[in-house]
Amino acid sequence: MSHKVLSVVVPMYDEEAVLHQLVARLRPVLDGLDVPYEVVAVDDGSKDATAQLVQQIRAEWPELRLVRLMRNSGHQAAITAGMAGAVGDYVVTIDADLQDPPEAIEEMLKKARTENVDVVYGVRSDRSTDSVFKRQTAAMYYWLMRRVAGPHVPSNAGDFRLVSRRVLDAINKLPEEGRVYRLIIPWFGFPSTNVYYERDKRAAGTSKYPLGKMILLTTESIVTFSGGPLRFATWLGVLSAMLCVLVGIFVVVGVFTGQTVPGWASTVLVVGGIGAIQLFCLGILGEYIGRIFAGTLRRPLYLVGYDSMLDTDTVPGASTPDTGGTSGTAGGTGVIGSDASGKTAQ
């Protein structure tokens, strides 16, 4: 296979209605870049004729590749499969629904080269085509993610982005299966910049991210990137203990003023005290489970961007365990594990 400067990964799930429109807009943009490229279309177990249409288009568009997953594994899993097989120096991920404009890819590649950055985020500057409910829930999601994963998470940046080969190599070394790339890629800390665009309406077909799947994505984002929920019992136990102290003072005052029913004071103190102790103990267990959770992710403690001894500006292999090429990991083969959407994609 000849060297490619750019790979464009397009996860697809039941996209036959929009496929020809996507090709009509994407191909002229890529042909106009005057660089060797490939388009990796990842069919995520579509039930319609998406894969067959891609095969037909490949006869006239040799740069188009088709990757088919054995079953519907989810949007993030389809992106993982595409990036694992991409061969370009730069990789762009874009959905097939044309809400993110292919025309922005030219600006992304130009910025990555001229500004010497490794990540270019596609940021939605105008979401007026989305419903009010969609805009509000999206704003809440990014607000929450910036507090869970850190302020480095860009607002209104979904899965439309460009990454360099060294970012892709770092991603492919990750051993964890449950991935939310809009959180993982900012976590690396590679130099980045933004390209702003207006979000369009979906060109055809139906949305693959209704409310239920958005909730699942939010849940996946929180539990795979933060042990915060495990500390809820700890703080609830502390709050209960403080409340129990206040109730105890109230009970003692009531006993001395004769305003209590016999047996009431001891019952309240015992029930409140035991409840606070139980919650606090659950919180302690949660702290230990949180450490186990963090350990199972097996993320590298750091990434070396430059080593004068090696005289290279690439990212050396991080100290991560050998995944052994098992299914469901970045280096594995076969069916990739499902994401927050379960049996859905996009």
UniProtKB/TrEMBL annotation:
Q: Which residues form the Glycosyltransferase 2-like domain?
A: 7-170
Q: Name one Pfam family in it.
A: Glycos_transf_2
Q: Which intervals of the chain are annotated as region Disordered?
A: 315-346
Alphabetically list the UniProt keywords: Glycosyltransferase, Membrane, Transferase, Transmembrane, Transmembrane helix
Q: What InterPro entries does its record include?
A: Glyco_trans_2-like (IPR001173), Glycosyltransferase_2 (IPR050256), Nucleotide-diphossugar_trans (IPR029044)
Q: Point to the regions of Gly residues compositional bias.
A: 325-335
Instruction: Report how it sits in the membrane.
Output: Multi-pass membrane protein
Task: Kindly report the protein's main subcellular placement as a broad class.
Answer: membrane
User: What CDD domains does the record tag this protein with?
Assistant: DPM1_like_bac
Where is this gene product found?
A: Membrane
Residues crossing the lipid bilayer are 232-256, 268-289
Gene3D superfamilies of this UniProt entry? Spore Coat Polysaccharide Biosynthesis Protein SpsA, Chain A
UniProt similarity note:
Belongs to the glycosyltransferase 2 family.
* Protein name (database record): Glycosyltransferase family 2 protein
Question: Native species of this protein?
Answer: Arthrobacter jinronghuae
Q: Output the lineage of the source organism.
A: Bacteria, Bacillati, Actinomycetota, Actinomycetes, Micrococcales
